[in-house]
Amino acid sequence: MKNSAKFWLGAVMLLVLLLGGANGAGAAEPWWYYEQLPLEPVVAIYTAPDGKEIVSLSSAWSDPGKLQALYYELKNNVHGKEWDYLGGVVIYPDYPLGRGVGGLYVPELGWDSRGQRYVTPKRPIFLFGGDEQTELADVAKTMAHEYGHHFTVYYFWTKYGVTFDNYWRTPWYDIRQGIRDPRVNNGSHAWDPAEIAADDYAQLFGSPQARQFTKFTSQFGYFSSSSYNLSPQENLALPLAAQVPGLEAYWRQLAGLPAATNQPPKPPQLALTGSGQDERGHYLTFSWSQAVDDRYPASLEYTLVYHGPNDTLAAPVAYTFGDNREARFYLGRETGSYYFRVFARDASGYVVSSPILVINLSNLPAPTAVPRGWLFWDIGPDYWGYLQVEKVTARKILVPNAYNNFVPWGNITRAQLAVFLQRAFPQAPATQTPPVFKDTSNHSYAWYINWAASRGWLKGTPQGYFYPDKLVTRAELAAVLARLPGVDQLPVAQSGGLFPDTTNHWARDIIRDDVRRGLMYGNQQGYFNPDRATTRIEFSVALSKLL
């Protein structure tokens, strides 16, 4: 890939199955002994309050304070009962299993003499290349992945009595999208079910540091697999873990963890929107729609990346934040088809991917507009009232709630309706002196109620009550719509608007006229339901035609 050095570190798991309570280490060896790794001199050890040890065999990790920080980084990965069975972390200075292997986890599982399953405690996580990977940020992602092996193996064994050799005997097989692909277990590391599950853990439960985005300033330069936003998972052909329905809930329930308190963002949509040339050369312009988060919509981070069909590490094009959703990709020597995608990360660490955009760099397609993206967490690109909601929310007449949900089927109170009308028509002149309502003087929306009443749009009862907290019915909404500015300019159909349940209703004629103007509709069964509480989406659709 273009003028960039890339460095890939994989991580592996080797399983030891024991019978009759055997132990893999002899009495003279340290607790982390594994026969396929050389025993090297210990440089430093940090012993945590819970007895776990961070053992350094690397001079670059000789500071006990640094080892202590590594322990707390390890502990920042979400954990349950399986935590008690981990012995700690051992840092090797080099790569005893080859430069492509950055970490290793070796569980020991077995049956005792009574045939009961057990997990051997005090198992180690090995981190390799400590003389090169000298900072927490360098090893956090690998360590989260290796802890993912510990986590997933423990619960497969203790709950189901199976290892990943028999993954198809677990509910995970039915939940994890892509796991039935014929390439699974084809000998490739990326298609190994145990590696897929460990990557899933790192994405869903890894520490904040492990899921941190690297802020790339350019597509040119050094990059490596330690950058989470280039490979949230090794297998880029599979859906990301956060985009697999039910996957996080499955692991939480299996491990006895509390339910998630928020949701992954809705993914962006990506398009090739232009091209040009500057001092760096010819470039393509990519733009994307916003990802939509349910908690912190203003804190979304994006990384535009590209990779080949079989790559396990994407190359960066640009990192952006918030409303900056455009980037340039400079053309180089690449030919043929490449996959472009945007990874979006929310403040809680969830990462989602846009649909992959395949671009043939040897035969560039024409630019297009950005596809419609998610407006809010509950208003997707295919939602029937998308354009109307977009219109009223762009003018901040209606706004989403604190969780970035529009709540289309939520109801509206009479006081809220007054607020919405003032926001929609702030320049409308008063036409009358508002009545003095007996139940609004201390209401938080009293000013809005008086404002709307002075325009003749909202009315109270003959007894002088407004009932500000009463829900607006569809018939009442029809009456209000008929009084609003611009309603007389709408074309009127010659027929329609008559319903079996409005024949004797006080708002029959008003409903008929509003329906003929296209402001309101009946249901598929031919009823209007005039006394049902109206909804935010019904009001938005009607109001948008008057704006």
Automatic annotation (TrEMBL):
Q: Which residues form the signal peptide?
A: 1-27
- Domain SLH intervals: 372-431, 432-495, 496-547
At the top level of its lineage, which domain of life is listed? Bacteria
The record's Pfam families line, in alphabetical order, gives:
SLH (PF00395)
InterPro entries linked? Cell_Envelope_Struct_Comp, FN3_dom, FN3_sf, SLH_dom
This chain's protein is named S-layer homology domain-containing protein
**Membrane-spanning intervals of the chain:** none
Annotated ranges, domain Fibronectin type-III? 264-367
Alphabetic keyword roster: Repeat, Signal
